[in-house]
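Bit of a strange request maybe. I'm writing a small parser for structure token strings and I need a real example to test against, not something I typed by hand. Could someone generate the tokens for this chain?
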Amino acid sequence: MSTPAPALSVVIPVYDEAESLGPLFAELGPALAALDRPAEVVAVDDGSTDGSFERLVALAHGDPRIRIVRLARNYGQTAALAAGIEHARAPVIVSLDADLQNDPADIPRLLAVLDGGVDVVNGWRSPRRDPWLTRRLPSQIANRLISLVTGTRLHDYGCTLRAMRASVAKELRLYGELHRFIPALAADLG
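Reply from user aminoacidic:
Good idea to test on real output. This should exercise your parser:
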């Protein structure tokens, strides 16, 4: 029996997240099962050195929805995300961090908004699990500044939980740290 073509690709950049992958996939499985569309998971190992790749292989062994892309070395989150987008086969892509900052149970909410006719839906890490002074305060300042400069207002540019149409995602030219600016880049595409 063949696996149906995916209607949703979940792209997960992974760098040294061996400990979080089990819990992440334990949460992701029920979230995907609750959807009314077949899904694939494109996990991109970004040159991990902690056994993340081997953990991904073990997780994929019993689940044909999981596809693994392995980068030769650590290129950074933007490059890993771009590689995942390139390998995604579905018309809708959800990006998700591997570090458990985002709840996969939020994916249906993002898809509901996307299905309403928009091209990109960005998540919002609330409540944040990071220290206030060293992570949250700088993030709040950056979000306000980026919103002011780009004209695209968001609460959390740093949140990589987002849903987007593949037709838009595949048009983006991502490099450096541009994964943070996907909503603004997509707005510029029109």
